């Protein structure tokens, strides 16, 4: 009971972190209009803000993977919360566009730290049958954060309150070190090299590069809605509808991914992601180009946004994340998640600037001079149309590519999965034999640590055989299950405390995910307000997200190193502290440069957190439940997007004691992020860093230098990257994540339509609430389909989700009239869209990632995935801004507020948004098809690898308990010969020489 309660508590805290993470993400897009007015920023400038954060976040995902491996992942989540909270504070105090851009970049650091750690914690706390549901809940809570962030920012955007702008938060703590920093860095590099060579990983990264772009571009959605004439309240409602639909879609995708994975193990998850990504194209066309630019059609816009959010959000929980967990050993999961996020976030970081550039230079967006007079309705409508075209360009093309890239997984995923399973099987069997010998010898209590491969085979691994080195590394590092085994051998009853710790950690990791996404959503929610305050164009606003994404992508290797060397819970905490600090910097920034620097710093914290979260989630679930686990994680993330965007939208129109409401929103998110980071530091438990040891033989790792850790992580990363399923996930994720980033302009779009801040907040909250439930639903469906169709269930679910985004986005952005009186229609469409497009993560992506690698590699695979996938989505907001301004005729209002110009700008922004949604989701849906071939093989390989690692470690632990180790060596060699022929023995060690006992 104690262990179960701890696990529940961890899950609750992790989901809370996910809420705040998504709330922080949603906060800025919810107040794009207010930020744009305050910074005198165009949609291109507003998109640049998201690009800045996304770049930093993508760069920091390797850091998140390292932190998750080396430190308590709960602490990593807490650290990330502190970081993004600090960055959010910086945004709140910034007065120029540069200040906001810097603060958003700093925000990306904290967000990068949190996400992989949260996801890995959720994966660790769920099994194969419930992982989709777990990630569905995570997505639900994350979308709640998006709702809260967007709604809160919209509600108070126009208010002023009195807040002390000077806040200093210093967080530091000691982490448990097992190796020197150089050794661990060397291990991390080795692990990363191994992960990168996994074919499935390469495909998923390629997919993620395009699939993440539209999501990043969607940061302009609030601005597009506002330009069409939607009020802030209506824009908040519509964006909330989309967020809720995405949350439910993620949960649904995770559930369907699990179900299809059981029925069709080799193709179920892949098909699902292809459907999800392909659906984004028609849905985005309907939303951005088909619906009328009339704020009275809010109901129709909400309905389309709901359908789109419900359909296009399956890829992560249904396919990418689960497959990552299957194609690498357990210890490499943080690395693979960090690498994936690092790669994917780079291109996605350019989405906001690209949207802004397209809007201004391709579609005729006319920049508005914010802060004086009343906007022209005609010009707003023209700008909305330009921004809509830019958004659609940034969505349709990447989604189409993503859908095609998924097809490559059909051939690579089954092989990579089976390889990982075989490795785990061999390690598990060898470890069990050694544990039994240890018990018979009776001398196990006197030993402090035990290694497997270094004693049995002392020669160095060959440089070109990274997969064998990865098995070696995980056999050496694995130990998360040894305590329970020893207690059973001794005749003791397993304690209930680990289960309680697991649940508590999952809760905290999801909480960190909430805050991480809330921090990401905060700036796009207030793009207009930030642009006005910093005199920034949409392209410049998109550049802020690009700055954060670039830094975040660059820091993902650091995240992988931190996860390998330190407690992942501590890594998450540190990331939270970092992004909190960056958020504080954004809040107090007065220039664009200051904001850009703060957003870049924010990317460091975000990069630290994400791989640790994902690997913890993967480690806490099995193949049958991983989709549900990641569905819960996506739910938490969606809650974060909801809260961040909602808070930003609500506060954007307000002033509190003379302080702009959007700044107050950043302060609030930063404070809550610090609190979440503290909770993760003290209460979340990394299973690789148990709070107590039952004996000396069950210590998981020996003292290692940082260099050794880095080398092992490089080996692990190389193997993860070589997994075909991971490669497909990355390819899918690159395109599938792009629309989500582009949706940061949704709040601005709703406000341009004519919706008030309050209406915008409610609409955005509706969307993100729908994405929250969509993620939970997707995770549940993914687990169900994984049982019925093991090889295809999850994949089909993601393809449905991604494919549905295309028509739903078309209805929302193009089909609904630009009339704020149609708020109900906008809300319905947003809700349906959020419900359908949010399945991928919890239903397919996250559970499969946990299945295709051994348990120890889950942090690595999540970090790698985040690293790769975060690149392209970082460009989504700038791309939306560019499309709106350059392609679809968005024109900034230089003479004051014009209702007509706002409507025109809303139409431009809607078209830009749909372009950024439809194309990437179509590509994403196609790419998912490749999982049908690769996923079954990679899953079985990971299972076999897990058994091999377990047995090897148990054998070595038993031999280490005897005096006179040389006389035990013949027995160990004989046992190894029974389990493995000579060729397979070298496969485990990556060595041609048996060596001796070193």
Automatic annotation (TrEMBL):
Domain Major facilitator superfamily (MFS) profile: 505-923
Bilayer topology term: Multi-pass membrane protein
Location of this chain's protein in the cell: Membrane
CDD domains associated with the record: MFS_spinster_like
Transmembrane segments: 74-93, 134-157, 233-252, 272-291, 298-316, 390-413, 571-589, 629-652, 664-683, 760-779, 800-817, 823-841, 862-884, 912-935
Keywords of this entry: Membrane, Transmembrane, Transmembrane helix, Transport
GO annotation, cellular component aspect: membrane
Molecular function (Gene Ontology), one example: transmembrane transporter activity
One Pfam family matching this protein: MFS_1
PANTHER family in alphabetical order: OS09G0371200 PROTEIN (PTHR23505:SF11), SPINSTER (PTHR23505)
Family the UniProt entry places it in: Belongs to the major facilitator superfamily. Spinster (TC 2.A.1.49) family.
Protein name: Major facilitator superfamily (MFS) profile domain-containing protein
């Amino acid at each position: 009971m104690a262990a179960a309660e701890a696990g529940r508590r961890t899950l609750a805290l992790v989901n809370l972190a996910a809420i705040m993470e998504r709330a922080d993400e949603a906060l800025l897009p919810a107040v794009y209009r207010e930020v744009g007015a305050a910074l005198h920023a165009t949609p291109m400038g507003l998109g640049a803000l998201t690009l800045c954060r996304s770049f930093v976040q993508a760069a920091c995902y390797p850091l998140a993977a390292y932190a998750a491996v080396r430190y308590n992942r709960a602490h990593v989540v807490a650290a990330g919360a502190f970081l993004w909270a600090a960055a959010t504070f910086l945004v709140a105090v910034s007065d120029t566009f540069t200040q906001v851009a810097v603060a958003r970049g700093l925000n990306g650091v904290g967000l990068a730290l949190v996400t992989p750690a949260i996801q890995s914690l959720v994966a660790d706390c769920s099994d194969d049958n419930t992982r989709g549901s777990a990630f569905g809940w995570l997505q639900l809570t994350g979308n709640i954060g998006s709702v809260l962030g967007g709604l809160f920012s919209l509600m108070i955007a126009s208010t002023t309150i009195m807040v002390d702008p000077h806040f200093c938060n210093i967080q530091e703590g000691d982490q448990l070190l097992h190796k020197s920093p150089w050794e661990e860095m060397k291990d991390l590099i080795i692990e990363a090299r191994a992960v990168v060579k996994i074919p499935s990983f390469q495909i998923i990264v390629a997919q993620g590069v395009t699939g993440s772009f539209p999501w990043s571009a969607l940061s302009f959605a609030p601005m597009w809605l506002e330009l069409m004439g939607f009020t802030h309240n209506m824009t908040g409602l519509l964006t909330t509808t989309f967020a809720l639909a995405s949350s439910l879609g993620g949960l649904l995708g995770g559930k369907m991914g699990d179900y299809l994975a059981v029925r069709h193990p080799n193709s179920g998850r892949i098909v699902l992601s292809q459907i999800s990504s392909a659906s984004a194209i028609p849905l985005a066309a309907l939303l951005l180009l088909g619906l009328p630019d009339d704020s009275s059609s809010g109901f129709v816009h909400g309905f389309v946004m709901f359908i789109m959010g419900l359909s296009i959000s399956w890829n992560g929980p249904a396919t990418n994340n689960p497959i990552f967990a299957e194609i690498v050993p357990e210890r490499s999961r943080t690395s693979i998640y960090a690498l994936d996020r690092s790669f994917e976030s780079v291109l996605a970081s350019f989405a906001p600037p690209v949207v802004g550039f397209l809007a201004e230079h391709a579609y005729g967006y006319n920049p508005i001079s914010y802060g004086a007079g009343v906007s022209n309705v005609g010009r707003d409508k023209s700008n909305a149309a330009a921004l809509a075209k830019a958004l659609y360009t940034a969505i349709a093309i990447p989604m189409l590519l993503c859908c095609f890239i998924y097809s490559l997984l059909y051939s690579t995923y089954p092989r990579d999965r089976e390889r990982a399973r075989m490795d785990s099987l061999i390690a598990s069997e060898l470890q069990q034999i050694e544990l039994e010998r240890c018990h018979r010898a009776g001398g196990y209590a006197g030993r402090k640590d035990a290694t497997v491969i270094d004693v049995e085979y002392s020669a160095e691994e060959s440089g070109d055989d990274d997969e064998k080195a990865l098995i070696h590394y995980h056999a050496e590092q694995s130990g998360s299950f040894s305590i329970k085994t020893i207690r059973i051998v001794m005749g003791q009853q397993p304690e209930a405390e680990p289960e309680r710790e697991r649940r508590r950690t999952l809760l905290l990791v999801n909480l960190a995910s909430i805050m991480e996404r809330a921090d990401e959503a905060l700036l796009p929610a207030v793009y207009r307000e930030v642009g006005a305050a910093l005199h920034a164009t949409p392209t410049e606003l998109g550049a802020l997200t690009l700055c954060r994404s670039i830094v975040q992508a660059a820091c993902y290797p650091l995240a992988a190193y931190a996860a390998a060397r330190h407690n992942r819970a501590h890594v998450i905490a540190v990331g939270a502290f970092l992004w909190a600090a960056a958020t504080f910097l954004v809040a107090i920034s007065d220039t664009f440069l200051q904001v850009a620097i703060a957003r870049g710093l924010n990317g460091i914290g975000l990069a630290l957190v994400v791989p640790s979260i994902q690997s913890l989630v993967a480690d806490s679930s099995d193949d049958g439940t991983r989709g549900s686990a990641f569905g819960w994680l996506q739910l938490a993330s969606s809650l974060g997007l909801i809260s961040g965007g909602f808070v930003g939208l609500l506060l954007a129109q307000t002033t509190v004691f003379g302080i702009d409401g959007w700044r107050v929103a950043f302060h609030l998110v930063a404070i809550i992020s610090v609190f979440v980071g503290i909770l993760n530091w003290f209460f979340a438990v990394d299973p690789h860093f148990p709070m107590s040891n039952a004996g000396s033989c069950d210590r998981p790792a020996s003292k290692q230098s940082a260099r050794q850790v880095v080398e092992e992580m490089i080996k692990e990363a190389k193997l993860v990257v070589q997994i075909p399923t991971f490669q497909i996930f990355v390819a899918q994720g690159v395109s599938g994540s792009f629309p989500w980033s582009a949706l940061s302009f949704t709040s601005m779009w709703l406000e341009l339509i004519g919706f008030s801040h309050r209406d915008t907040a409610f609409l955005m909250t509706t969307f993100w609430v729908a994405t929250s439930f969509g993620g939970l639903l997707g995770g549940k469906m993914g687990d169900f389909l994984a049982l019925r169709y093991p090889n295809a269930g999850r994949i089909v679910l993601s393809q449905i989700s991604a494919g549905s985004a295309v028509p739903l986005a078309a209805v929302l952005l193009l089909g609904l009239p630009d009339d704020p009186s149609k708020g109900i229609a906008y809300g319905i469409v947003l809700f349906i869209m959020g419900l359908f497009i949010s399945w991928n993560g919890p239903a397919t992506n996250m559970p499969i990632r946990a299945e295709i690698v051994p348990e120890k590699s889950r942090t690595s695979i999540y970090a790698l995935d985040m690293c790769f996938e975060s690149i392209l989505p970082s460009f989504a907001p700038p791309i939306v801004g560019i499309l709106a301004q350059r392609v679809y005729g968005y024109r900034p209002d230089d003479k004051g507020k014009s209702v007509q110009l706002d409507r025109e700008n809303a139409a431009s922004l809607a078209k830009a948004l749909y372009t950024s949604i439809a194309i990437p989701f179509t590509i994403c849906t196609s790419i998912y098809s490749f999982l049908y071939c690769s996923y079954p093989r990679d899953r079985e390989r990971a299972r076999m690898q897990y058994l091999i690692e377990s047995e090897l470690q148990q054998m070595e632990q038993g031999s280490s308990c005897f005096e006179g180790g040389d006389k035990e060596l013949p027995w160990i060699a004989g046992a190894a010969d029974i389990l493995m022929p000579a060729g397979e023995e070298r496969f485990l060690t990556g060595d041609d020489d048996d060596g001796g006992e070193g």
